[in-house]
TrEMBL record:
Its EC number is 6.3.1.12. InterPro entries: ATP-grasp (IPR011761). It comes from Neomicrococcus aestuarii. The keyword ATP-binding applies. It is an enzyme of class 6 (ligase). Residues 129-330 form the ATP-grasp domain. Keywords: ATP-binding, Ligase, Nucleotide-binding. One of its GO terms (molecular function) is ATP binding. It comes from the Bacteria. This is Carbamoyl-phosphate synthase.
Length: 428
């Protein structure tokens, strides 16, 4: 589907995952508009969609290539510069690329992200945990290993509370690290395991900090998330909270939520608001957290400087994420003139924030598969919402008519069954 010449503005989205498609779907639902999606290469999530014009760039890791491609694309989409183009990234790597090259892109695109200094203060995990400690926000015991020092011979930290979770402080730099056994998140059982891992990381050339964190027990159903919108720097106006039913555990997408039930948690919302306001945040941000069964606290893990892969749960509550962007960065007149959907979401006031309070189940899994993995209180909520038919799948969009797309979705459902058999969810 090509972008019509008469379309008043064009969303341009870097990426190729479910989160990318979800944002394109949201623009299509809200305005009937087609988004230009720029992946490294196309795939079944994007192909044959009524909402997507796929323009592969060939790479997402070579910044100079991507920036040059985006500038050429802008010239094609808006030759006179009169048609606004909005630029988005689906992953931290892409958002960081956009913000680091803002000066080369902002003459052609509206960029709805904070400046790179604010982003790094939030997205680099050692900075995030320091801010949590400052503000008294619950978080796991955390140590940052300086990989420059470690590569130069500095000893590894001692007396750590094993088992540990190990993860990069800078996920965009982590993309380039290559070593045997590399994962998005590592589980470290003892000191020998730690020394082996740090040695391999040092050999990969990764020189940012590496985070070691106490393992918070509990299965996937203990994971929590919350998406926030700050209308102006340091002024959060909206939040949407979710409790994870089950996550994906195959290596490439480890930790991504495959099922979420929505609701309201005032304590989590308030903690997140304090963090974002301290950062002078603007636009969307998403917190990952986990309920610690040892003390009943929800402990904060990280702030994603963007909408998450699973963010369609926000729109499903009746608050279309695309419309937030348009109203704030293009103007109310663009939204009023082009919107074809009516926002139906309700709110609960939490402090000074409007919190989405609709209860529903978001899932990318076929329901028979999801039913096999319902655990605890969150699983009971999911079962009740399935019975009430309050379920949404971001890929199941009624406006999509192409038979090849629906054939892909059928195959995708079968692949999920295979993946969950090979990489089962965590239960403790």
């Amino acid at each position: 589907m090509r972008v019509p010449d008469t379309q008043p503005f064009v969303p341009v989205i870097l990426g190729g995952d479910i989160g990318t498609y979800s944002l394109a779907r949201e623009f299509h639902e809200a305005y009937g508009f087609v988004s230009v999606v720029v992946p490294a290469g196309s795939n079944g999530v994007l192909d044959y969609s009524v909402a997507v014009d796929v323009r592969p760039a060939g790479t997402m890791t070579e910044a100079d290539v991507v920036v040059r491609y985006l500038r050429e694309l802008a010239q094609e989409l808006s030759p006179t510069g009169q048609r606004p183009l909005m630029l988005f990234g689906s992953l931290d790597l892409q958002v960081t690329l956009i913000t680091r090259h803002r000066e080369m892109l902002e003459d052609a695109y509206v960029i709805p992200y904070v400046d790179i200094d604010t982003m790094e203060r939030a997205a680099l995990k050692e900075n995030f945990y320091e801010l949590c400690a400052e503000l008294g926000v619950p978080h796991p015991v955390t140590v940052a290993v300086d990989m420059v020092d470690h590569a130069a011979g500095a000893p590894a930290p001692k007396n750590l509370p094993y088992p540990l979770i190990g993860k990069p402080a800078d996920s965009s730099a982590w993309v380039s690290a290559k070593f045997e056994g590399k994962k998005k998140i590592h589980t470290i059982t003892d000191e020998g395991d730690l020394l082996s891992l740090l040695g391999r990381i040092a050999g990969s050339g990764y020189r940012q900090k590496f985070i070691l964190q106490e393992y918070v027990p509990g299965g996937d159903d203990h994971m929590r998330l919350c998406t926030y919108w700050a209308e102006q720097p340091g002024h959060v106006t909206f939040a949407a909270y979710g409790e994870v039913v089950v996550e994906e555990h195959s290596p490439i997408v480890l930790g991504n939520s495959a099922g979420i039930v929505t609701g309201v948690n005032e304590e989590v919302i308030n903690h997140g608001v304090r963090l974002l306001e301290a950062l002078k945040w603007e636009g969307f941000g998403m917190i990952d957290a986990k309920l610690d069964p040892r003390d009943g606290q929800v402990k904060f893990f990280e702030l994603n400087p963007r909408l998450g892969r699973n963010h369609y749960y926000v729109t499903a509550t009746g608050h279309n994420a695309a419309r937030f962007y348009v109203r704030r960065y293009l103007g109310e007149e663009y939204d009023a003139a082009n919107a074809r959907s009516v926002e139906t979401g309700s709110y609960q006031r939490v402090g000074g924030v409007d919190a989405a309070n609709a209860e529903l189940l978001y899932t990318v899994l076929p329901l028979p598969l999801l039913r096999k993995h319902l655990r605890g209180t969150v699983g009971e909520k999911a079962r009740r919402l399935m019975a009430a038919k309050r379920v949404v799948n971001p890929l199941m969009y009624s406006a999509e008519k192409h038979p090849r797309r629906w054939a892909y979705l059928a195959m995708n459902a079968v692949n999920y069954v295979r993946k969950f058999r090979q990489f089962p969810p965590r239960t403790s």
